[in-house]
Amino acid sequence: MKFKFLLFWLLFLQLSNQATLVQAQNSGSITWLKSGNAFAQQEAGNIVTFTLPAREKQVLLPKEKLIPAGQTQPLRIRSFSFSEDEQQVLIFTNTRKVWRQDTRGDYWVYNLATQTLQQAGANLPAASLMFAQFSPDGQQLAYVSQHNIYTEDLNRKTTKQLTTDGTRQLINGTFDWAYEEEFFCRNGFRWSPDSKRIAYWQLDASQVKDYLMVNFTDSVYSRVLPVEYPVAGEAPSPYKIGVVEVATARTTWMQIPGDPRQHYVPRLEWTTNPNELILQQLNRKQNESRLFICQASNGQATPIYQEEDAAWIDIQASWDQKYANGGWDWLNKGREFLWASEKDGWRHLYRVSRDGKKETLVTRGNYDVMEIVKIAEPKGLVYFIASPENATQAYLYRTRLDGKGKPERLSPATQPGTHTYNSSPNATFARHQFSNYYTPPTTEWVTLPGHQPLDKISAVEQALAKADKVKSGLEFFKVKTSEGVEMDAWMVKPRNFDKTKKYPVVFYVYTEPWGQVVKDQYGIGNNFLYKGNMAQDGYVYVALDNRGTPVPKGRTWRKSIYRKIGLLNIKDQALAAQEVLKLPYTDTSRVAVWGWSGGGSATLNLLFQYPRIYKTGIAIAAVGNQLTYDNIYQERYMGLPQENKEDFVQGSPITHAKNLRGNLLYIHGTGDDNVHYNNAEQLLNELVKYNKQFQVMPYPNRTHSISEGEGTQEHLSTLFTNYLKQHCPPGGR
After folding, report:
1. Which phi and psi (to 5°) does residue 607 adopt?
2. Whether 508 contacts 595, CB under 8 Å
3. Exposure winner among 3, 206, 496, 673, fewest CB in 10 A?
4. Beta partners for 383?
5. DSSP code per residue over 519-544
6. What homologous superfamily is domain 37-161 in, according to CATH?
7. With contact defined as beta carbons under 8 Å apart, do 725 and 504 qualify?
8. Taking a C-beta distance cutoff of 8 angstroms, is the pair 180, 204 a contact?
């Protein structure tokens, strides 16, 4: 459910950034070089390097060198990476989408020393390669094609197939839909440090039922598209972890305890020893985590570290997206590693010995670590994002890795808002990006730890000086409900606001563990679906973050929603709305609510469970029945239906649909592979059963983003705006 919310919110912010970005240096994706004071990025089809602090520019790989033999145009670079010695460049191009991201395409290798260009997997189908990686010694590539793993000798130009049994339902080196969506697992193999072996996941989705999506639009006859999709209550695809010898293509399977149909392995890496793996195993409820070290030669698995939680345990990629592509933070030459836990009530970092017998709390205090920016072990420091005083903001901190220091804030006190950093390998330089609700996104280069801009004048300070807080029209405030729950909120009042008049109120909601909507960042109060300006037209626009949302307020706040999605979050929102509607300028006869995905579910539940408060709702791509959503997400937050099915039922909008009194516009894409269209049909059936009148818009063959097809965005925006204006008319009265 979280995918849609994040996708559209990030898309909106990206578009606003492109229009208003103030920057002191190109803000495109960068690849740091090993020197620590230089980085590479794509620029007009060339790969260029910049050396800090002067930012001296040099063309490392001109696009003219990327013209394949027999062609006239250079390769279009989607992304690139370097071999360990930085003498070879791997180019990803001609890409195709697999579920959420373009992870399939063609790969080419350019050798900077010999100035030669060669295609990887040239004998395989076009655009079929996934996750190509240089071996640590730079002599080979490994990649996945059509669910099998291959290696390629770059000197001999020979290809070897390491697995041969891959199919749509027996997946080697990558993942099924649920693992990708909920654990961010895509690249499913890892080179050993000595370049002799590859560790990989194998998932057997043959025992998982298919959801049958139907394409009615692309041909005269409909076409069925099966997607292996385990819903809540169904066992996941069983996993196996194998280590394949590159020389012999022989696989040794790891002997991991536990039924693979009742467990997950969301993380896997090599240790610093080329014969050992480390992996994280979660039980099916995801409230027990065990770390194992496995011997690659014989598969022996030894447990080293265990943790339990009364609710659930988040994997690292769920709160720090840098780990979505793997990674393990080893310290002290592999004798220790850094690990995150909420065991003391806050998300903190711990230094854990390799055998798991000793641990040291590194970050201390009543705050959550929101992101790991950089581990600077030679300096004995870790840099991280936190915000102890204001959960809507984010700042850079550092502390000592030995756990004996106090957190030191590095983001300037004169820059209130949201800060992000891309640090150099040695934590000497960082690309600093900043915005707040009245200051457009701004980028600059700074030194660390002093946070001094490389330019004479800070671009962020310049942007803040020009920004007009009053003109933004947005204000942050706190709401305390009748049950004593205090929630962060923002509000945008109408332009030319007249306190003697009453205005319609529109609530924007998400409410589930994957969406924080009250953030101090630019564009936060804009409605990306509304045609025009809501403030100009005379709406009061409001958002609130209830308990259970992923804000940095500690474990109790976030996990209070366990087994209560559709109830606790809905009650918090409704009671907070009652407080907002006590304001003298709000019109309680004109109250609307809207949301997408999890926010669509919340919209339905608010409209059905609290019909006296909410008069109009627009729900998009909503989960109407929690038993239809995937097992990893729904069981993580709700438990197992076999044990507490009543919680799933009571939290589902279809259970309360009979209570609809107001106006409902329901929108869903029939090609949604995330929240399937059967949610719409089940909900509509229930509304029809009780003679509840409503309006519905099915978007043919559109996915969860409802973004495909000519005219779709314009149509959706027009539909949304017209319905809101018709049933919740704007303007003061």
Report:
1. -65, -35
2. yes
3. 496
4. 374, 398
5. -SSTTTT--TT-SS-HHHHT-EEEEE
6. TolB, C-terminal domain (2.120.10.30)
7. no
8. no
Structure tokens at 244: 């394949």
Helix H or strand E encompassing 432: strand 429-436
- The domain limits of the chain are 37-161, 329-466, 473-727
Write out the two tokens for 695: 């309006």
Task: Record the tokens describing residue 290, joined without a space.
Answer: 């065990």
Mean pLDDT, range 433-441, rounded to an integer: 98
Write down how long the chain is: 733
Residue 355 corresponds to which tokens in the numbers above? Answer: 């055998």
Q: What is the pLDDT of residues 669-720, one digit of tens each?
A: 999 999 999 999 999 999 999 999 999 999 999 999 999 999 999 999 999 9
- What is the distance of C-alpha 598 from the center of its chain? 14
* C-beta separation of 260 from 240 below 8 A: yes
pLDDT reported for residue 208: 94
Q: How far is Cα 440 from Cα 522, in angstroms, rounded to an integer?
A: 6
Q: Is the peptide bond before 449 cis (omega within 30 degrees of 0)?
A: yes
Residue-wise burial string across 516-552, b where 16 or more C-beta atoms lie within 10 A, e elsewhere? bbbbbbbbbbbbbbbeeebbebbbbbbbbbbbbbbbb
| Exposure of 452 in the CB half-sphere (CA atoms within 13 A) | 5
Query: What's the pLDDT at 456?
Result: 87
Task: Tell the CATH superfamily of the 329-466 domain.
Answer: TolB, C-terminal domain (2.120.10.30)
Assign 28 a pLDDT band (cuts: 50, 70, 90). low
Task: State whether the Cα torsion 675-681-686-688 is positive or negative.
Answer: positive
> What's the fold here for domain 473-727?
Rossmann fold (3.40.50)
Answer whether residue 500 shows pLDDT above 50: yes
User: Exposed e or buried b for every residue in 41-52, given b needs 16+ CB within 10 A?
Assistant: bbeeebbbbbeb
State the burial class of residue 172 (Cβ atoms within 10 Å of its Cβ: 0-12, 13-18, 19+).
Answer: buried
Residue type, 416: P
How does the average pLDDT of the chain come out, rounded?
Answer: 95
% of the chain exceeding 90 in pLDDT: 95
User: Would you say residue 513 has pLDDT above 80?
Assistant: yes
- Give residue-wise pLDDT tens across range 210-241: 999 999 999 999 999 999 999 999 999 999 99
Which amino acid is present at 67?
I
Residue position matching structure tokens 């579920």: 99
Asked, colleague to colleague, whether 37-161 and 329-466 share their fold, the answer is yes
User: What tens digit of pLDDT does each residue of 573-611 get?
Assistant: 999 999 999 999 999 999 999 999 999 999 999 999 999
| Residue 634 CB neighbour total at 10 angstroms | 24
How high is the pLDDT of residue 2?
54
Q: What is the distance between the alpha carbons of residues 641 and 234, in angstroms, rounded to a whole number? A: 9
Hey, what are 234's tokens?
A: 């169904």
The pLDDT-based confidence of 173 (bands split at 50, 70, 90) is very high
Question: Tell me, what's the pLDDT at 598?
Answer: 97
The two tokens of residue 12 are 């909106």
